[in-house]
Structure formats: structure tokens, C-alpha cells
Amino acid sequence: MEINTNPQKIKEVLGRGVEEIVDKNHLEEQMGSGRQLRVKFGIDPTAPDIHLGHAVGLRKLRQFQDLGHRAVLIVGDFTTLIGDPSGRTTSRPPLNEAQIRDNMKDYISQASKVIDTKKAEIHYNSEWFKEKTMAFLMDLAGRFTVARLIEREDFQKRLKEGIDVSMLELLYPLLQAYDSVACRADVEIGGYDQRLNFLFTRRAQKKFGQEEQDILMAPLLIGIDGSKKMSKSVGNYIRLTEEPKKMYSQLMAVPDNLMWSYFELLTDLPKEEIEALKKEVLENKSHPRDVKMRLASEIVALYRGADADRLAKEEFVRVAQHGELPSEIPSVKVGKNEIGIIDLLVLARVAGSKSEAKRLVAQNGVRFDNIVKSDWKEMIKIKKGQIVQVGKNRFFRIG
Q: 133: exposed, middle or buried (C-beta count within 10 Å: 0-12, 13-18, 19+)?
């Protein structure tokens, strides 16, 4: 495939939705040379879903693909056994191999909604780690110092607070770095929270006699809670394969001030048009809700199709603006006569965790047959057919 070296196209790829590039001048030169670059994006299967936060990096990978470069997708089935410590205040709960296999079974089909997986190079990092010996690990670990590993801010913070950092967590950056060595990456794409891992990877490649990869880091997409980065562990994410009506309503729940980053990172709308919309809102010429509906339509249509977007929009208007019940309400079987309200919300999957469920109740965001429930300790007597509403747009029926 011919490599597109158009300076304007390169500028667009390196300019929009980018937090930092190391080394930008070198990367621009490489992209303009006409040589096909190997562009790596890694994802650990810590949960079954690829979400819009992952889509930020995948979209950037697709942009390189469209210029003719080689997309290299790494599924970290081996490194997930450890878990990425980046930004963590505690160690990740360990996953076993069966859980990891179950999580990643649909990853490639989900990723295909963004990148051309038929033209991509896809690897599972167990390919090169599974058969490695203790001698390999000793050789890899011997190329680095503990001082360099624990200089990371997240490790330093935990150590100062008396929170343990496991030996396995110290190994994670080494193993992630070796992924780039194994696939001979020229460029790596990822979130800005991965910066320390990426810089460590450059050192690893140099120690293995390879040219250091360039790094393109994207801003972190804040989740629908409006405070933390979109994450499977926090539960504030929107699945790439989410049912269109639910995806639309989730996007409408994004705080107004965050919708501009969603426009920039998740849509193909020109920057000039995004700025014009932002100006209209600031000058009170457009209502934020109407602009956010434009955002929801752009994203739903992108991943679920134009017809799905039209139906999702009609449903949102009917439910959120006219106060009617949804056309389809999922049923949840409880299997007991009484259950704690927190446990019920988690069971119904309208809350990703007990802490999120507690917050929803405390904010008067939960109604049973239109009656607000504000006591998160309340035990609910199960009544078949009862309608539970969470927030403005989420409903389920007790079966």
C-alpha cells in the first residue's frame, strides 16, 4: 500500500486529540519519508468490553492505518495476569487465565468497529511470554535498576503512604516494554497516563539494540461520572457495542463541560465546526442539551448506524423530554423476596459497583414506581412488575 505523505494529513493526525508526542520532529520526519511504520496499540483484557475510552487510541491507530502504515494491535492476555499499576492507589485484583480468555473473546470484533482488523497485525503477548524461561526474566530484569522503576510518581505516592507495591507490579513496565521489542514497534499510541511506561519502553528498545519508538499520547477521556477517566474498574464507561438507545442516553448524561473533548476525541466533526458550536453555547445562541444531542447522534451513528441513531434519538426525546416510559424496559429477576437496594442496582447493571449505587441513591436518583428512594440501606420488598428508574433515562422492571 502506498504511504500518504501529504503534510496536511500528517499535521491533522499529529495535531488533533494529542496530549504529547515523543519525539515529534522525528515522527514527522518518519511519516514524511514514505516508509511504512509499525504503529502499536496495546489493550489489556481486564473486562469483556472495549469502551469509548479505548476508542480514542484506536481511532488514532486507524488514522495511521488510513495513511498506509501498519497497525499492530497487542492484546495483553499475559500482562493482564499482573495488571497495569499506572495511576493505581492499590494493587489490581488478580485475574486468572480463564477470566482473561472469557474477557477477550470478542475483543477483535469490537476493535473492528474502529480499525480495519483484516489489514492489522494482531498479537496476544502470551505468544512471546508463555514459553519464556526464568533465564529470560533474569536477563530482562537485569537490564534495569530498581531505582529507575520506583521513581514513578504512582509508586512513590503509595510507598510514602505505606501502601505496598508488589514485585509483580515492578515487572509490569518491563513486560509491556518487551511487547514493543517483540513486535519491533516504530510508534506507540496510548493514553497520557501511560507516559512512564512508554518512556521506559524506549529505554528497553535501546538496550535490545533497536531504534527507540516514537510515542503519541492522547488526552484521557473522562467518564460519564464527570470526574475520573473512563475506566472498566470505575464503571463510568460506555461500551463500544452498547445498545444504541442506551448509548445515546449515556452520552446525554455526560456533563456539559466535557462534551467538547468528546467531540474532539470521538467524532470526525471538523475542529472549526466544534469551535463554532462551543461559541454558540457560550453566547446562549444554542442550548447545551441540543448540542449534546448532536454529539450523541454523531457517536451512535458512527458505531451503530444512522437508523439506530434515529430510533435512539426518538426514544430519548419521548422519555427524557416528554416523561414517557421507554418502549422497551429490560426485566430483572431477583430470585428472593427481599433485597438491599444497593445489591438490586448492581444486579440490574444500572450501577457498576456498590459505591456507584450508593451515590445514585444518595443523590435521589433512584425511583421505584415514581417514588424516590433516598436511603441506601433500605431493604426492598420484591414486587413483580415494579418499574425502577435510575437517573433520567435508565429503567428496569422487576420480573
A: exposed
pLDDT value of residue 91:
59
Check whether domain 7-218 has CATH 3.40.930.10, yes or no: no
Q: Please, what is the angle between helix 52-66 and helix 7-15, to 10°?
A: 170
Look at domain 244-321 and name its CATH class.
Answer: mainly alpha
Q: Are strands 20-22 and 214-218 parallel, antiparallel or unpaired?
A: antiparallel
What is the domain class of 331-398 according to CATH? Answer: alpha beta
Question: For the whole model, what pTM was predicted?
Answer: 0.83
Q: How far apart are CA 185 and CA 72, in angstroms?
A: 8
pLDDT of residue 72: 98
Residues of the chain with CATH 3.10.290.10: 331-398
Note the pLDDT of residue 295.
Answer: 97
What does the block give as the cell for 10? 500528517
The 10s digit of each residue's pLDDT in 48-72 is: 899 999 999 999 999 999 999 999 9
* pLDDT < 50 positions in the chain: none
Distance CA 35, CA 29 (A): 10
Tell me, what's the pLDDT at 88? 57
Q: Which residues contact residue 368 at a Cβ distance below 8 angstroms, ignoring those fewer than 6 apart?
A: 380, 386, 387, 388
Coil, helix or strand at residue 113 = coil
Q: With contact defined as beta carbons under 8 Å apart, do 296 and 256 qualify? A: no
